[in-house]
């Protein structure tokens, strides 16, 4: 969660903008991670 505050301060975003950005970022990372695991599951 410290990354949230670092992004907020570094980019100078408001709380609402940071929350929206963070939500999109974590969603993309989650879907990418799931895709990688499913792909690896095909080979292992």
From TrEMBL:
<keyword id="KW-0472">Membrane</keyword>
<keyword id="KW-1133">Transmembrane helix</keyword>
<dbReference type="InterPro" id="IPR003474">
    <property type="entry name" value="Glcn_transporter"/>
</dbReference>
<feature type="transmembrane region" description="Helical">
    <location>
        <begin position="20"/>
        <end position="43"/>
    </location>
</feature>
<dbReference type="Pfam" id="PF02447">
    <property type="entry name" value="GntP_permease"/>
</dbReference>
<keyword id="KW-0812">Transmembrane</keyword>
<protein>
    <submittedName>
        <fullName>H+/gluconate symporter-like permease</fullName>
    </submittedName>
</protein>
